[in-house]
Q: What sequence folds into this?
């Protein structure tokens, strides 16, 4: 059964502007989980399968719900999914990247509130696999398709549209086809600019951008943001270092290379393309014992990954709004499914936030 045939499921959470609970609609289970200090899955079990949650955790979750004013817009019948409920497909470029898993959390949160289900699949950063997954989900007749693309996916969007399935791009913009679908982006240029300005503000004048120089829009956009910030600081220098990959070990190798540089050429402010690269750099420098963080080298990540337990120094990050991106994308999808005649395609750009921690100077 499509969403159009089962409209009650898709529209039951729509709240009029006069509803006095409307101000709490953007407080979701991820917020409750963070407040209670538990996982999103535990909150979901509390709401749908309370027998699976201990009494101690129930008290913590209930307290968080009351403090935040969380309002559940729709409950499942008898704790079970309805047969024929609408299904959304989400294709992730890289399941090891926190951005995409947090986007998935935001999507699932809105789906849970509207008695919908989401199927998440992994493209393995492979364009051909992504196209295969698009066709598989379309053959399953999903009610909507969300794509965090490997690269430009004009053909995939066209395939979904030909199948009558609305599609939304997340974290990738193709200006040639924005009139055909909605897009939700994070402002990566702003992320680069915020990181650069923070390092310069705290006394770093030799900046380096350490990233895997690939075709990802996010990597290029962050570099543009750094370069934009440097236009206001003529005394600051800037170099780009290709990490050769996006993982911890790639950062570790770069960290060892940075440690071996002489003081004249060594950067004292590093912006990392991924938080895993940043954590690898920090670990290599701490292991080497020659340099101090942040006194000699300050380091900022640009994702907001949950890596605190893996890093010997708490990582300052420009955090991506992944959960909000998932929420916004799913809200757009709901409108497109339920308001086919009046829906207007749009591009939404969400701002990152700076979270100061121990890897940068105060």
A:
């Amino acid at each position: 059964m499509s969403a159009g045939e089962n409209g009650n499921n898709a529209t039951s959470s729509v709240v009029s502007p006069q509803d006095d609970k409307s101000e709490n609609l953007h407080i979701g289970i991820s917020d409750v989980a963070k407040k209670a200090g538990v996982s999103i899955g535990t909150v979901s079990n509390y709401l749908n399968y309370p027998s699976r949650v201990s009494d101690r955790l129930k008290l913590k979750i209930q307290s968080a719900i009351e403090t935040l004013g969380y309002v559940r817009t729709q409950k499942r019948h008898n704790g079970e999914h309805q047969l024929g409920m609408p299904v959304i497909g989400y294709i992730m470029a890289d399941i090891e990247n926190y951005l995409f898993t947090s986007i998935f959390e935001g999507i699932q949160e809105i789906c849970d509130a509207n008695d919908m289900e989401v199927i998440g699949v992994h493209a393995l950063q492979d364009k051909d696999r992504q196209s295969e997954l698009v066709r598989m989900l379309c053959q399953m007749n999903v009610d909507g398709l969300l794509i965090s693309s490997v690269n430009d996916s004009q053909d995939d969007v066209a395939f979904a549209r030909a199948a009558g399935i609305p599609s939304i791009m997340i974290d990738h913009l193709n200006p040639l086809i924005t009139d055909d679908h909605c897009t939700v982006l994070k402002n990566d240029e702003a992320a680069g600019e915020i990181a650069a300005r923070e390092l310069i503000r705290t006394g770093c004048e030799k900046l380096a951008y350490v990233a895997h120089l690939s075709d990802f829009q996010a990597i290029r956009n962050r570099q543009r943001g750094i370069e934009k910030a440097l236009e206001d600081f003529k005394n600051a220098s800037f170099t780009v270092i290709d990490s050769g990959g996006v993982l911890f070990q790639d950062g570790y190798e770069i960290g060892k290379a940075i440690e071996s540089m002489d003081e004249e050429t060594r950067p004292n402010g590093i912006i990392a393309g991924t938080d895993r690269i940043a954590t690898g750099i920090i670990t290599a420098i701490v292991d080497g014992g020659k340099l101090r963080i942040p006194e000699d080298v300050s380091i900022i990540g640009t994702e907001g990954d949950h890596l605190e337990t893996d890093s010997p120094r708490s990582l300052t990050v420009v955090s991506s709004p992944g959960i909000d991106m998932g929420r916004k994308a799913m809200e757009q999808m709901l409108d497109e499914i339920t308001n086919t005649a009046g829906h207007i395609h749009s591009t939404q750009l969400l701002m990152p936030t700076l979270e100061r921690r121990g890897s940068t100077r105060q």
About this structure: The mean pLDDT is 85. The chain has twelve helices and twelve strands. Residues 188-319 form a domain with the Rossmann fold fold (CATH 3.40.50.2300). The CA atoms of residues 300 and 313 lie 11 Å apart.
